[in-house]
Amino acid sequence: MERITMRQAKDYVGQTVQIGAWVTNKRSSGKIAFLQLRDGDCYFQGVVLKADVSEEVFTLCKNLQQESSVVVTGVIQEDTRSKLGYEMLVQSVELVGESHDYPITPKEHGTDFLMDHRHLWLRSKKQHAIMTVRNEIIRATYEFFNKEGFLKVDPPILTGSAPEGTTELFHTKYFDRDAFLSQSGQLYMEAGAMAFGKVFSFGPTFRAEKSKTRRHLIEFWMIEPEMAFMHQDESLEIQEQYVAFLVRNVLDNCDIALDILERDREVLEKYTQLPFPRISYDDAIELLNANGFDDITWGEDFGSPHETFIANHFDKPVFIMNYPKGIKPFYMPLAEGRDDVVVCADLIAPEGYGEIIGGSEREVDYAQLEENIKNFGLDTADLQWYLDLRKYGSVYHSGFGLGLERTVTWICGTEHIREAIPFPRLLNRIYP
Ligand code: ATP
Ligand code: MG
């Protein structure tokens, strides 16, 4: 007999098969029991008729506890009432693992309780839906960059110096030397772009952020493309095509998950329409000041109410371009004809989700870059390898970083970033 998962059900209608599953719920009366089952991928119903099964099996079904694991054997049949479209008419049930007093019950639980039980919370429907969307975004990311001719390059996670300062870095011992966990692979990706043209990375990054917000994780995953022979305007086009591609693929491939998350598809459809609006930092400050935000002046970074206002104003993801040099890192070049703003852009998601991409063109002139490094109080010796890239065939190039969990949270329309990663690391949490 074939062991299948419910996803394959359409190819097995009328056939007897086996499925390994967990019991999420059950209901029974004298002659019939309904098992709500989860095979890890799909949620489905098993119908047990007392007349069809042994006395022993029917009694077992009536006594199954939440999250017991079973192997059910039965016939796949169509079920027009469920979204899945199929159910199983159960012939026999083998109990694999008992479960008693499963802590997460259908009643409401507090966030701390759920976070303490994250290893079990992952089994619930909403979490499954979010992880399905996350998986689709990961899959579509590889598809997008492969079709665009990018080579995946993996930057190191352990680094020997701290190019953007140590305040947000995790420190560790590296034998008898110091090392830090990577907060971005960008500088290495620039070396990658000079070697391979168009490259992207996809890996974990670590920031010892003391801020406790619903958008910040301590450990998160970032996609960092870097493109040689590319100016910022062309990079923005790649960024918007990439983001629209992610939303399109979630819409096309995550139907059940979007239902569970009750995400409005028409809202998501809007985010697949290009181009995304662009506004300069200068104009964004004016727009804010004209709309009653008198708590921000030119030169300051946006807070989340500012970002939320701007993105909602356009009702789409929006690029804010060319920030003051004082609030951006050392490697960004000055905009033409300006000595106060650099060529960069952040992509701000609407609905209050904040920045999902940070990107810029990169300084390519050796002398200028060296001066920037010194002006930022950094050590040129630590960055000699990075300066070298400007010595041997330096070309204009641009890149960006997209935060995976920010993007998942936004596309899912969920409240807090902690649910967008299987085991979130937060300011006060490293368990489980
Ligand atoms: P923010 O101002 O929101 O802290 P940032 O300017 O520090 O963001 P970048 O350094 O540009 O962000 O990082 C690139 C992307 O990585 C961001 O656009 C965001 O999507 C994501 N990101 C940054 N910090 C975090 C974090 N602590 N948790 C999750 N994602 C993050
Ligand atoms: Mg930050």
Automatic annotation (TrEMBL):
According to the entry, every stretch annotated as the Aminoacyl-transfer RNA synthetases class-II family profile domain falls at 133-432
- Keyword entries, A-Z: Aminoacyl-tRNA synthetase, ATP-binding, Cytoplasm, Ligase, Nucleotide-binding, Protein biosynthesis
Which GO biological process annotations does it have? asparaginyl-tRNA aminoacylation
Localized where? Cytoplasm
**EC number(s) in its UniProt entry?**
6.1.1.22
Q: Which residues cross the membrane?
A: none
Catalysis: reaction(s): tRNA(Asn) + L-asparagine + ATP = L-asparaginyl-tRNA(Asn) + AMP + diphosphate + H(+)
Quote one Gene Ontology molecular function term.
nucleic acid binding
The primary location reported for this protein is cytoplasm
Keyword match DNA-binding = no
Q: Would you name any one GO CC term? A: cytoplasm
PROSITE patterns per record: AA_TRNA_LIGASE_II
CDD domains for the chain: AsnRS_cyto_like_N, AsxRS_core
Q: Name one Pfam family in it.
A: tRNA_anti-codon
Q: How does it assemble?
A: Homodimer.
User: HAMAP family given for it?
Assistant: Asn_tRNA_synth
Member of which family? Belongs to the class-II aminoacyl-tRNA synthetase family.
Q: What is this protein called?
A: Asparagine--tRNA ligase
Which gene specifies this protein's sequence?
asnS
